[in-house]
Prior knowledge:
Layout: E1 8-12, E2 18-23, H1 33-47, E3 50-61, E4 64-72, E5 76-78, E6 81-83, H2 90-102, E7 116-126, E8 146-154, E9 159-164, E10 168-173, H3 174-177, H4 181-189, H5 191-195, E11 198-202
Parallel strand pairs: 1-11, 2-9, 3-8
Antiparallel strand pairs: 3-4, 3-6, 4-5, 4-10, 7-8
Amino acid sequence: xxxxxxxxxxxxxxxxxxxxxxxxxxxxxxxxxxxxxxxxxxxxxxxxxxxxxxxxxxxxxxxxxxxxxxxxxxxxxxxxxxxxxxxxxxxxxxxxxxxxxxxxxxxxxxxxxxxxxxxxxxxxxxxxxxxxxxxxxxxxxxxxxxxxxxxxxxxxxxxxxxxxxxxxxxxxxxxxxxxxxxxxxxxxxxxxxxxxxxxxxxx
Length: 203
């Protein structure tokens, strides 16, 4: 028997309400995976654990939820977001990252999209200066090296995205992500289970 407690409601606009443009390329800070973990080690010595804020952006096509992902090359996918600077508020950092990644370049100070950051969907922890990460802190780890926080970010009814030319912004259906860590990694492939806590309203 299902629990009578009502899940939180999330409003999903249709994919057709969004247009996709392009802008100048934006390159990763690190040229390789080994360089990324070398920088992580160096910065941990200066500032401690790295915080990363990422966005779960949901919309729908034919009443099926889709997740917006950034695709680099043919086989690398990631959620939009970025590193949080020391002392910076994680939600404000995420808004800044989303504007830099997905909004048109303007001379004004007001972004094209008013990002509304709401729930924390999940957190993943990196216990060492290596790729493995977990949705919990392993009991033998006292000082995790990185914490990735994924927030639900409500999309406006319609918008125009401007995507760096070296990326593609793709809408991936939940059935493509589910249990597909080989293509999307453990974090993204776990999102369908986490999204099931919400009651979707298709706009």
